[in-house]
Predict the 3D structure of the following.
Amino acid sequence: MRIGALEAGGTKMVCAVGDENGKLEKKVSFPTKTPEETMPVLLDFFEEHKVEAIGIGCFGPIDLNKSSATYGYITSTPKLAWANYNIVGAFEKKLGVPIGFDTDVNGAVLGEVCFGAAKGCDSAVYITIGTGVGVGVYVNGGLLHGLLHPEAGHVLVARAAGDPYAGKCPYHPNCLEGLAAGPAIMERWGRPAAELAEREEVWELESDYIAQAVTNYILTLSPQKVILGGGVMHQEQLFPLIRAKVAEMLNGYVRHNAVLREIDRYIVPPRLGDEPGIKGALVLGKNAV
Ligand code: ADP
Ligand code: ZN
């Protein structure tokens, strides 16, 4: 089956054509401008490639409730040109094929579950730590939506003793995104995260905040795999720090080998590199048919 995949992000739109087995035939990306400028480019791409379905993993917040009048809309995003924009409707109208739609991070967790590090799992979380923090949740064999969709990048964490930084989130003084996403690292330490690799105290603090959140996801969602991606996780020294702190915070309470003895294989980077989102979008497209 010929499926179109779109990973819709605030800075770029990754478009691909592939099949239901996660094989990509073509992948290109276009800058995200306004819907008036960008949508015709995307519509032309998918029309030209004669796709039979499209899956979209989208930045949010978005409306995923199929019985809502604004299903398929990007809702209250800070990217104002895209606020209240009916992105699913625009594709349906022009291409008339089934459209699968979910958050970018739900797309990413689905990609890793179908083809990557969480293959075979029926519950997994994918956490991206980049410009923001987002969490895709797959539980009992399906993507979690609930009330709106999870916003678990904004879980509250306990501020580390001696961290005077006010936080970057306009809503929460103590949330993970506000204290630990790339822009927070930059503001707290005065340099981009990528230039702070040698500063141990940066990653000591960063891993504490990430570990608190991961501990809470483990305790509430009971994932069989925890996948950490996004630009900040390119600092690979974070992985052993996070694993050790999660083990310490759980303190032996979750009595499973994954945590007690095999945490190196439990808290892992994406196996699909930078493609979990686009491959997950293929599956979203397939599932829409
Ligand atoms: P986005 O979240 O916008 O989709 P990324 O996941 O690439 O994109 O995240 C971008 C953020 O990641 C930036 O804040 C940047 O500072 C940070 N980042 C990118 N590369 C690195 C790196 N090698 N080490 C640490 N931080 C990085
Ligand atoms: Zn927040």
